[in-house]
Write a structure and sequence with these properties.
The complex is a heterodimer of chains A (265) and B (245). Chain A is mainly alpha-helical. Helix content of chain A is 81%, strand content 0%. Chain A has one domain: ABC transporter involved in vitamin B12 uptake, BtuC (Orthogonal Bundle). A six-stranded mixed sheet of chain B has the order 5-6-7-3-8-9, with helices on both faces. Chain B has a three-stranded antiparallel sheet with strand order 2-1-4, covered by helices on one side. With 245 residues, chain B is an alpha/beta fold. Chain B is globular. Chain B has a single domain, classed as P-loop containing nucleotide triphosphate hydrolases (Rossmann fold), CATH 3.40.50.300. Classes of the chains: A mainly alpha (265), B alpha/beta (245). Chains A and B meet through helix 6, helix 7, helix 9 and helix 10 of A and strand 5 of B.
């Protein structure tokens, strides 16, 4: 028999996996993994600020992730090598957040919940945020899909076709912030990038078109979420890391499968 | 009215000027070639014209609703992005299957639609880029060193294809090249660029201009005259060959 909290956890996991699986394809294609890290790590700072000002955690995380996303977008427009700056921002935000959380007077909070997720405690409100945010991400990607794909292939080709590649990049960066706000409850700040990248990477091995890769990525993410939840309950481990472990396992299988297919042909 | 009218364009990286005081207008149907040494700002100028770079000075006016078919110098597709030729042709606007197949045929790569882009040879890849560029029925086709990486017969046949495309669509062609002999013979107008416009005019005028000779040497000028002479003889002949291939 399914307990109520397990159903909610499953719904939260699948909702997050859909949004992250879709957006993750662009993160992989555009090599934005560090973008993801910086935005996700900023979420910890968001948690600290939310506690400090007594606002909702989602609001704090969303606002700080958004600010970080816009900052990164601005920096990437400078044309400089942003890799190092991104590294500084990513880990700076994480460290600052960790320090800030412990400095808040009168608060004894369970930091693990925000670093690694706490999907078993999602409320109905959390579910609304996850599915609302997820729906927003899916709708935006659906709307801009062709333009974003063109801009990803070549910013110049996009320009020649009348598409502004900077605008597409900004939308992607904003969606990244939305996914961070959605996913922090499920896999936590430290593993959000994993949920973006691993399902997409697994999907790559068996995809012949961008759309098929997106579909397989979503399917892999959803399967990882459900199987990870089940295994975590059986082995009594935390859920977020177990979801990622399952995703890595699927990735390994798909990589081996690809090699075998290559040898076979 | 000109298709594209660029006035007094300046562009630079930091304090390094790349383009200065460049003015250029492109009229419907003409073939204009930009020649110039490496680092003379040819690609930068093209990217300013398509709107990928914002000029620091000057103004680019594109005709209302101008459709540009752009063939970049190089296009690197990330290996994590699987995409077939057909899917690529449908970006950003989807086209009918027949139109896609026809464009591939026009570009000389019929039947490659189901191939992965990553599995194409250099020449096939450039032709697929050309096919995509002509699919939108452009008013102007812009080619940035489109034959880079092709061998001589390959690039010669590529240029024949472009000539055929132009007659088909009646579009203007603006290309950048440093294959002087091939390009000069096919152009209505040549612009010699080296940060600024050194000289421009018909191929005869430019190849005789002192500024041009200073950049490319008189040796090339001699070879050019020879080539043009040669080419005048075999012109129609050449195209029959192209059609028969």
């Amino acid at each position: 028999m399914l307990s109520d909290f397990l159903v909610r956890a499953a719904l939260a996991g699948v909702g997050t996996a859909i949004a992250a699986g879709l957006l993750g394809c662009f993160v992989v294609w555009r090599r934005m993994a560090y973008f993801g890290d910086a935005t996700a790590h900023a979420a910890v700072l968001g948690v600290a600020l939310a506690l400090l000002f007594g606002t909702s955690i989602t609001l704090g995380v969303g606002a700080v992730a958004l600010a970080m996303a816009v900052l990164i977008h601005g920096l990437s427009g400078q044309g400089a090598a942003v890799d190092t700056v991104l590294g500084v921002l990513a880990h700076g935000a994480l460290a600052l957040g960790l320090v800030a959380v412990t400095l808040i007077p009168g608060q004894r909070i369970d930091l693990d919940a925000y670093l690694f997720g706490d999907v078993l405690s999602v409320t109905r409100m959390d579910l609304a945020v996850i599915w609302g945010g997820g729906a927003l991400v899916v709708a935006a990607l659906w709307w801009r899909w062709s333009a974003m794909l063109t801009a990803t292939l070549s910013p110049d080709l996009a320009c020649a076709a009348g598409i502004n590649p900077r605008r597409e990049q900004l939308i992607l960066t904003l969606l990244l912030a939305a996914v961070v706000a959605v996913a922090i409850k499920v896999v936590g700040a430290l593993l959000i990038t994993a949920l973006l990248i691993i399902p997409a990477a697994a999907a790559r091995n068996f995809a012949s078109s961008p759309e098929r890769m997106a579909f397989l990525s979503v399917a892999t993410g959803a399967l990882s979420a459900l199987a990870g939840l089940r295994l975590a309950v059986i082995f009594d481990t935390s859920v977020g890391p177990m979801i990622i472990v399952v995703a890595v396992f699927i990735f390994a299988l798909s990589a081996i499968g690809r090699q075998l297919r290559r040898i076979g042909t | 009215m000109s298709l594209i009218d660029a006035r007094d364009i300046a562009f630079g990286h930091g304090d390094q000027p790349v383009l200065q005081g460049v003015s250029l207008a492109l009229e419907p149907g003409e073939i204009v070639t930009i020649v110039g040494p490496n680092g003379s700002g040819k690609s930068t100028l093209l990217r300013v014209l398509i709107g990928a770079l914002k000029p620091q000075k000057g103004k680019v006016t594109r005709q209302e609703g101008l459709r540009i078919g752009y063939v970049p110098q190089k296009l690197h597709i990330d290996p994590t992005l699987p995409i077939t030729v057909n899917r690529f042709l449908n970006l950003p606007r989807s086209v009918s299957k027949d139109a896609g197949a026809e464009a591939l045929m026009t570009a000389g790569v019929a039947g490659l639609g189901e191939r992965q882009m990553s599995h194409l040879s250099g020449g096939q890849f450039q032709r697929v880029l050309l096919a995509r560029a002509i699919l939108g029925k452009p008013h102007v086709l812009m080619l940035d060193e489109a034959t880079q990486g092709l061998d001589q017969p390959g690039s010669a046949s590529f240029y024949r294809q472009i000539d055929a495309v132009r007659r088909d669509l009646g579009c203007a062609v603006l290309m950048v090249s440093h294959e002087l002999h091939v390009v000069m013979s096919a152009s209505d107008r040549v612009i010699c660029l080296n940060g600024h416009i050194c000289c421009e005019g018909t191929p005869e005028v430019v190849s005789a201009a002192p500024a041009y000779r200073e950049l490319f040497g008189t040796g090339t000028g001699g070879a050019l005259a020879l080539y043009r002479h040669d080419h005048d003889h075999g012109h129609d002949h050449d195209h029959h060959h192209a059609a028969a291939e």
